[in-house]
Amino acid sequence: MNNNQIPLSQLPMGKKARVAALTSDGSARRRMLDLGIIDGTEIEPLYKSPSGNPVAYLIRGAVIALRSDVSEKIIVSNGESLWD
């Protein structure tokens, strides 16, 4: 992971980023791929539950809730200054 890459769980609310890598394997990786979470996919955190877990993300036009244990295994990149 380089300087402009962070786990999705650390992406600030309302900031967009692109998927750089998936660090999970097995059925968890398959589920993410089935949801359309592949390299280059734009993701934006929209809402956080009152307890902070899960968080709703906008992914390919759909709002999908992910727990922090899942979102920390999705590495995102700001690429071209998607967040400042």
List the helices and strands and how they pair.
Layout: E1 5-7, E2 17-22, H1 26-34, E3 42-48, E4 55-59, E5 62-66, H2 68-71, E6 74-77
Antiparallel strand pairs: 1-6, 2-3, 2-6, 3-4, 4-5
Considering the chains and any ligands shown, give keywords for the structure.
84 residues, alpha+beta, SH3 type barrels, six-stranded antiparallel sheet, 2 helices, 15% helix, globular
What report would you give on this structure?
The chain starts with a strand and ends in a 7-residue tail after the last strand. The chain is α+β, with helices and mostly antiparallel strands and 84 residues long. The chain has a six-stranded antiparallel beta sheet with strand order 1-6-2-3-4-5. It has helices at residues 26-34, 68-71, and strands spanning 5-7, 17-22, 42-48, 55-59, 62-66, 74-77. The mean pLDDT is 87. The relative contact order is 0.31. 15% of the residues lie in helices and 36% in strands. The longest helix has 9 residues, at 26-34. A hairpin with a 6-residue loop joins β3 (42-48) and β4 (55-59). It has one domain (5-79): SH3 type barrels (Roll). It has two helices and six strands, in the order ββαβββαβ.
